[in-house]
Amino acid sequence: MEFYDYLLDSYGYNEPILSGEISYKGYSVPWIKKMLKKLCDEEKIIRFEKGIYYIPTDTPLGKSRLDPKKVIQKKYIYDGKRTIGYFSGMTFLNMLGLSAQVPNRIEIYTNNEPSRVREVSVGSQKVLLRRARTGITDDNAATMSFLELMTYTDAGFFDSNKKKIISAFIDKNRITRKSVSDYSPYFPDKAMRTLVESEVIYDVAR
Questions:
Q1: How many CB atoms are located within 10 Å of the residue 23 CB?
Q2: Exposed, middle or buried: residue 183 (CB in 10 Å: 0-12, 13-18, 19+)?
């Protein structure tokens, strides 16, 4: 299998390809970088930004563009194998339908950020990254994003409609009182105070 065919078979069109994750027949990193540059020169792939590429499709307006949100998802939320982050703040409120306000930057907690907080640009999209409070996994991401929501809001935020929305999130993600108890020590006391005073705690499964 040729290198381009390997990339196409592994990633498909218009999906982010992170150079650091490529493993091809035992070839070295310098060889892979050389081949990526060659494919870019041949316009078979496009460099989105340093270390990130994609295989474009042809459109009436030229080569397709890579959606920055796909890059954000892969670099900071789900790397294709495991969950490494979750959305927070106004971003998460908007995603759940708890707010109609569309934030001008995406907020994320992720394992892939060593700094306490840092703003980066992914394409034209601003992203506020925060270091994970503790290791984020497939099993705990929903609980941690829920506790993050409790930290971000206060009891008065949750009217009857918003309680229904968050109750549905709790049920869908099977958030339990045990998981809340296990991870609440990593959050400010405000998280549990909001959870109790809003009475959302009664929606958390036993």
A1: 10
A2: middle
Q: Please tell me the distance from the alpha carbon of residue 72 to that of residue 62, in angstroms, as a whole number.
A: 24
197 vs 199: CA distance, rounded Å: 5
pTM for the full predicted model: 0.91
How confident is the prediction for the chain on average, in pLDDT?
95
Six-digit token string for 46: 């496009």
| pLDDT the model gives residue 85 | 98
Helices (H) and strands (E) in the chain, counts: 8, 9
Residues 92-115, buried b or exposed e (16+ Cβ, 10 A)? bbbebebbeeeeeebbbbbbebee
- Among candidates 150, 78, 76, 136, which has minimal Cα distance to 106? 76
Helix (H, G, I), strand (E, B) or coil at 90: helix
| pLDDT score at 47 | 97
Six token digits for residue 61:
């307006």
DSSP codes joined into one string, 148-187: HHHHHS-GGG--HHHHHHHHHHHHHTT-BHHHHHHHGGGS
User: What contacts 70, CB < 8 A, 6 or more positions away?
Assistant: 14, 15, 16
Residue 44: strand, helix, or coil: coil
